[in-house]
């Protein structure tokens, strides 16, 4: 088909020859043919790489650009959502870990309190047992001391005797016996008199005998207020006309009376049990 064909000239030419109704049909037909020719030329130029081969209708680019923008927005929203969820997940996980640690600490504290309470109860029980044991030891000690004389004392019968090596006045000697849990010796039998004489060995020692004023007279008494069942006075002694203190023993193993002075002394204390 020649390139100089003008569809409009052809339409104008035919419109003058034909009638109105018939021309209108041809006009439509000619326009259809013209459109086909235009489409043919456009396709032909595209295949040959003509100037219009790279041009795309702008109507086709706008939907793609909008879709790209929407896709970008969706991706951004997804990233924001993922980041938010990640932060929330980490926060919840840390909170759970802290809660778990807090619960573990609370459990450990409660367990420590229970252990401390049990330990305190054990300590209290041990203290009570120790107190009871000390009481039993004391009783046993008292029982042993009641059966046996302390070191430095001599046993005779159911009593323990102590002979001093120092010299003091009668009252001071008695105080020393008190400090030892005893008193000056009292002699109530011949056998005890012989034992005291041997214990004294030589010289004279204070014994628990003195005069007590009763009205205008004086009476001899033992310091434990026990009666004088037997007496072993030396000749010329045993008068009760003034303040006197008894001592034992002279060379014959007899008692003598003295107003005072420094002498050794003999203490006596009873033991609770004797076999």
From TrEMBL:
The keyword Acetylation is annotated on this UniProt entry: no
Keywords: Coiled coil, Disulfide bond, Membrane, Transmembrane, Transmembrane helix
The protein's name in its UniProt record: CD209 antigen-like protein A
Gene3D superfamilies xrefs: Mannose-Binding Protein A, subunit A
Originating organism: Mastacembelus armatus
C-type lectin domain sequence ranges: 156-255
GO molecular function list: signaling receptor activity
Transmembrane segments: 66-90
GO CC aspect terms: cell surface; plasma membrane
Coiled coil: 102-143
Pfam families hit by this protein: Lectin_C
Record keyword Coiled coil present: yes
GO biological process, any: regulation of natural killer cell mediated cytotoxicity
Matches recorded under SUPFAM superfamilies: C-type lectin-like (SSF56436)
